[in-house]
Structure formats: C-alpha cells, structure tokens
Amino acid sequence: MSESFTKGMARNIYYGGSVFFLLMLLALTFHTTKEMPKRDHRENITESVERGKMLWEVNNCVGCHSLIGEGAYFAPELGNVYVRRGGEAGFKAFFKGWMNAQPLNIPGRRQMPNFHLNDQEIDDLAEFLKFTAEMDVNGWPPNDEG
Amino acid sequence: MNTLKYQSQAVAKPYFIFAMILFVGQILFGLIMGLQYVVGDFLAGAIPFNVARMVHTNLLIVWLLFGFMGAAYYLVPEEAETELYSPKLAIILFWVFAAAGVLTILGYLLVPYSTLADLTFNELLPTMGREFLEQPTITKIGIVIVALGFLFNLGMTILKGRKTAINMVLLTGLIGLAVFFLFAFYNPANIALDKYFWWFVVHLWVEGVWELIMGAILAYVLIKVTGVDREVIEKWLYVIIAMALITGLLGTGHHFYWLATPEYWQWIGSIFSALEPLPFFAMVLYAFNMVNRRRREHPNKAATLWALGTAVMAFLGAGVWGFLHTLAPVNYYTHGSQITAAHGHMAFYGAYAMIVMTIISYAMPKLRGIGEANCNRAQVVEMWGFWLMTVAMVFITLFLTGAGVLQVWLQRLPENGEALSFMATQDKLTIFYWLREIAGVVFLLGLFAYLASFWVKEKQA
Ligand code: HEM
Ligand code: HEM
Ligand SMILES: [Fe+2]
Fold first, then answer.
1. What is the rounded distance in angstroms from the CA atom of residue A56 to the CA atom of residue A74?
2. What is the helix (H) or strand (E) element at residue A71, kind and residue range?
C-alpha cells in the first residue's frame, strides 16, 4: 500500500464507515419492522400458534428440519409442509397421523423420533406450521417439495 | 525455561488445551451425523440426529470462544506491555465456563431436549430450540456473565497499558461479540421477527465482529513471525476490518430475501454481500505480502503456515463459497440446501478454527516453556496435521457442493409434480455423503496428528 495512505486515514475510514453502515442497518431494520405486519400476517398469531412455536422450539424440530430454509438439512423443509400435505382440507389429519406414527423404524431410513405429544399439542404445532406457510416470504420455496 | 514476557499470559494455556479437547468432541459428533446421513437408523434411538447436531455445532462455537479468550489473554498483556489485570479472575472464569459448557452438553446427551427445557425453566424466558442458540437460558446467562468478567479483565489491562491498534480492534470485536449475543434473548412469538433478529447474532458474528477478532489475531501473529513494521501491519488491519464492516453490516440482507421482508433486501443484500469477499481477499494479499517482506526467519515455521493457510482458506470458504450462493436469484434455489452446509463448513474451518490454531501454534511453545518454537520433528508432525485437516476440509466442501448442486437440480429446479421429494432426492445423493464421511475420517486423523505433535520430541542423539 502506498506511503501517502496512512494508518490514520485507514482508521478513520474504519470508524466512519462502520458507524455509517451500522446506522444504515438500524434505519432499514426500523423500516422493515414497520413493513413486516403486511407480510407476516401477525394478526393470525393465536394462542395456539404461540404454543405451537414453543413446542417447535422445546422439541428442537429445527435440529433435523429447516423452516423457510433455515435450520438443518437432514429432513424435509417444513415451512410449506402445510401446503405440501393437504392444506386446509387435509393437513391436520395428515400431521396427526404422522406425529403418532413415529418412529417409522424402516431399517436404514432416516428416523424421526416420537415426541409423545397429546392431541392438543399436535394441533398447536399444526397451527404454527399453517401460520408459517401463510406468511408472504417473497415466493420461496420454488416448488412444493421445499 | 521461562519464555513468557508477562507471567500472566500463562492463563491462556488451559483455554487452549480445553478448546482442543472440545474440538475432538465436535468432530466425533460430526462423524456420527455424517453416518446417520447415509445409515439413517444408526444410533437413532440413543443419539438422534438433532442431538448430535446440537453437540457438534455448540462444541464448535464454545471451543472457538475458548480459543478467542485464550488468544486475548495471551496477546493483550504483551501488546499492552503490562501484566493482566487479574489472572485469578481469568482462571475462575475458565472453570465457570468449562463447567457450564460440559453440563450443557451432558444435558443434550442425557435427557430429551424438552425435559432439559423443563429442568432449566425455559418457560420463564424461552430462548431455546433455535439453531446454534439451543443452550438453556441459564447457560446463556452464564455465557453473558463470563463474557462480562472477561471483558472487564481485558479492559482494565488495556486501560493501564499501551493501547495498540491490535488491542483496540480485538477488544472492539470481543465487545461486539457479547453485545450481539444479547439478541439471543429476544424470542418473539412471531417467527418472522424471531428469524430476523436471530441473524443479528449469527450473521453479525461471523461476517462482522468475529472478523475483527480474526484480523487482530492474524495481525499479531504476522508481526511476530515476520518482524515487519507494526505501522504497516496495523494499516492493513484497519483497511481489512473497514471493508469487513462496510460490506458485512448491510450484507446481513442476504438472509432477508425470503422472510416476510420488503423486496429491497434482495438488492441491498446481493450488492453488499457480493462485496464481502473483498476483506478476505485482502487478507490473503496481506498475509503473503508480509511473509515475503519478512525481516527475520522465525523458527516457528508451523505458525507461519497456519497464518497463511487461514487467510487462504477463509477466502475460499467465506469469500468464494459465500459468493457462490449470495446473489438473490441464485439463493432462491440454493437456500437451505447442501450448498449452505458446504459453505458453512469451509468458512468456519478456514476463518475461525484455523485462526485459533494459528495462535495456538504460535503461543503454545512459549506457554509450555519450550521456547520460540517446537523442535523440527514436532513441527513436521504439526504440518501433517495442517495438511490432512485442510485438504480433508476442501474435499468435504467439494462433496457437499456436489450433493447440493444435484439436490437443487432434482428437487428445486423442476416444476411442481416433476420435482423429486426431499427424501427421494437424498437417496440420490448417497455417494456424495459416503465420500464426505471418508473425508471426515481423514480430517479426524489430521486432528490426531496435530494433537500428537504436542508430544513429539527431538530424537535423543
Ligand atoms: C470432519 C468431519 C465433519 C463431519 C462429518 C461433519 C458433519 C456435519 C453434519 C452432518 C452437519 C449437519 C448438516 C445438516 O444440518 O444436515 C454439520 C453441521 C455443521 N458443521 Fe460439521 N462436520 C464435520 C466437521 C466440521 C468442522 C471441522 C467444522 C468447522 C470448523 C464444522 C462446522 C459445522 C457447522 C458450522 C455446521 C452447521 C452448518 C449449517 O447450519 O449450515 N463441521 N456437520
Ligand atoms: C467466516 C465467515 C463466514 C462464516 C463462518 C459463515 C458461515 C455460515 C453458516 C454456518 C451459514 C448457515 C447458516 C444457517 O444455518 O442457516 C451461512 C449462510 C450463508 N452465508 Fe456464510 N459465512 C461466512 C461468510 C460469508 C460470506 C463472506 C458470504 C457472502 C459472500 C456468505 C454468504 C452466506 C449466505 C448467502 C448464506 C445463506 C445460505 C442459505 O440461504 O441457506 N457467508 N454462512
Ligand atoms: Fe451471512
């Protein structure tokens, strides 16, 4: 690096640049959080959805699955499983059957444990997955397979 | 023989040793998961995949934190030209953090996760069950307390001593690490908001403040092994971290493409994150430049190799593999695929695992009273470790990338009805996963070689 470009100049770019862009991030975050209600449909967060999210967390579903593309890549994407598995008409029945059938114990196949959830809890999880599927996330995933 | 400039630097040693022990654990659990990828029911009852994954990733993060702390305790006194404010506090915090870490990992392994949540009163302040942030809330609080004590200790040391650029940048990075971790306590019922601020921990760590830590450690080691003028090295350091933050802060946008967020993030995220490779590229230029302009022949060749290797591998893993999937139109297809896993592995290894091994390689001979460097034989074994691990990681990355490309091709690109399901796609990727597992075993052998080098002595004549 040339001699006329001094350490002091570099330091000032560092301070100025990082403060400026940190403020930009904060400003955009402020704007984004104002816009998000239109897209995440938070008016649909019922107590059931809330409990469902908690169940999702305390059973660490995200340790095998991804949810809207984040999490683990070992098991199917669940952000849109509501759409993939029957939607309004069929999802809840599918989901209840699925949760109760675990583990499938198919030799050699990846396993999902049984979490010993009661019907209410399974319904809460289903409501949470429905809520997630109905958020407007700019058209991801590309198809129903997730 | 005493080879430390400041006696209190010695507190770094348990931090480094413990980091390496956890590293071994991390890799063992990685291999368990790697096998479960292809033999789905392997240990499925005893160690379900999600448990192995928590152990793998949390051990990674915790050993890196131990490494960063060890690095700070080692280099801050020397840079500040004064003893550490309180070596005793550093040792107490070591045991607190080690105990909290071990208990947390045992909790993951011994009881079902939901039981662990109950036992630790997660419902009072629910923070568990999110990727990388799986620790019980009390562990998280423990981490904050350890971090505060640690920062206090360093801050007081720097206050009474010389304030070099390296020390200030390192301290800023570490403070940033602690501050952004606080977002781990924010867990709203709205999953979209939860995810948005989750990235304030994850992204702003690895593509923000951790780069400051990495830059500072690299600068310190380069000064030591090359003898190049501090002014020059510190100027580069500022340029690199300036680029890192200028690109990385708004680069966070590459995680807001598909998240109930406005579309403008697809532009902002793409543009700024596309520039994120620049600081990593600058690190390569600078590391090689400084080594070429060296004013002394430092006997620790292994440390120099680690320093250069870190710069190159961080550029490949973060810069090249990050760029690969960072533009919104590409990310639309690759998001959450094996491509993400490929990038995550090489970036974490290249940037952060390697920078910790760089400082360990440089500092350990001094901490152990051996001198400037280990004997030649030990260095040769250490370099075997370096090459085996690094080449194995290149192959892990390539195999996962292969799996990811095929996954996108089969599962993401075709229309509804034609696309293969997730599980059917995974069946087609088996060969890549087997190869990844083999490369993983080579990685473990490399790690053993690396650790063995600590016991190698010169042949008695
Ligand atoms: C050497 C053998 C290793 C094997 C077989 C292995 C295997 C795995 C597997 C199977 C996963 C879970 C992927 C999923 O969610 O489906 C994972 C995650 C992860 N591993 Fe490893 N790993 C190894 C070494 C390492 C090393 C050396 C590092 C870093 C220094 C590392 C860092 C990570 C990270 C950061 C994740 C989370 C990735 C993400 O969320 O995208 N692993 N690993
Ligand atoms: C050393 C620095 C870096 C580390 C340790 C790192 C690590 C990671 C990890 C572990 C993930 C997966 C997160 C998850 O589980 O969802 C990830 C995601 C991602 N990273 Fe990095 N990264 C680094 C730098 C970069 C850079 C410089 C770029 C861009 C040029 C980048 C682009 C991305 C993108 C686009 C994703 C999202 C992938 C997806 O959509 O699934 N990363 N990174
Ligand atoms: Fe990122």
1. 16
2. strand A70-71
Work out whether the CA dihedral B313, B314, B320, B324 comes out positive or negative: positive
pLDDT at B292 over 70: yes
Closest CA to B282 of A24, A19, A10, A17: A10
**Which pTM value belongs to this model?**
0.98
CA distance B54 to chain A (A): 7
**pLDDT tens digits along B114-124:** 999 999 999 99
Residue with tokens 């601020």: B197
Q: Tokens standing for B360?
A: 């360990």
| C-alpha to C-alpha distance for B294 and B224, rounded to whole angstroms | 10
CB contact under 8 A, B249 and A21: yes
DSSP letters along A101-133, please?
H-----TTS---------HHHHHHHHHHHHHHH
* Whole-Å CA distances, B311 to A46, A116, B240, B285, B443: 49, 48, 12, 9, 19
Tell me how far CA of residue B74 lies from CA of A52, B22, B151, B359, B415, in angstroms. Answer: 47, 20, 14, 9, 56
- Chain A, 35 to 54: residues with Cβ < 8 Å from chain B are 35-36, 39-40, 42, 45, 49-50, 53-54
Interface of A with B in 93-122 (CB under 8 A): 103, 105-111, 113, 115
Among B297, B284, B279, B187, smallest CA distance to B238 is for: B279
- Give B219-263 pLDDT, tens digit per residue: 999 999 999 999 999 999 999 999 999 999 999 999 999 999 999
Residue B2's pLDDT band (cuts 50, 70, 90):
confident
Q: What is the number of alpha carbons within 13 Å of residue B391 lying toward its C-beta? A: 10
Cα B284 to Cα B220: distance, rounded to the nearest angstrom:
15
Q: Which residues of chain A have pLDDT under 50?
A: none
pLDDT at B1: 66
| Amino acid making up residue B299 | P
What ipTM goes with this model? 0.97
∠ CA B51-B53-B54, nearest 5°, is 65
Residue-averaged pLDDT of chain B: 97
